[in-house]
Amino acid sequence: MLSQIKYFRQRLIKYLENHSVTETAIRFRVSRKTVYKWKNRYDGTIESLEDRSHRPKNIPRKHTEKE
Q1: Measured between alpha carbons, how far is residue 49 from residues 27, 32, 35, 44, 62 in Å?
Q2: Which of 14, 35, 42, 59 has the fewest CB atoms in 10 Å of its CB?
């Protein structure tokens, strides 16, 4: 399932090379913001198109040692 998502995003990037962002967004039924996000993230490898973690980097209300 995950590889299908990566290949879908890679096809989107290839299509974007010859078409505008708006045309690409309409063709692949995603938002323009999403097209820009994947375009900026893509570095030539399919691994760069993987989903990133949604886990927060910090926990602001975490208890301290004293608590």
Answers
A1: 19, 16, 12, 9, 32
A2: 59
What lies within 8 Å, CB to CB, of 61 at 6+ separation is none
CB of 12 closer than 8 Å to CB of 5:
no
Here the tokens at position 23 are 């045309």
pLDDT per residue as tens digits for the range 10-57: 999 999 999 999 999 999 999 999 999 999 999 888 888 888 888 888
Tokens of 63: 């208890």
Domains of the chain by residue range: 2-49
- Residue 6 parent element (H or E): helix 2-16
- What distance in Å separates the CA atoms of residue 8 and residue 1, rounded to the nearest whole number? 11
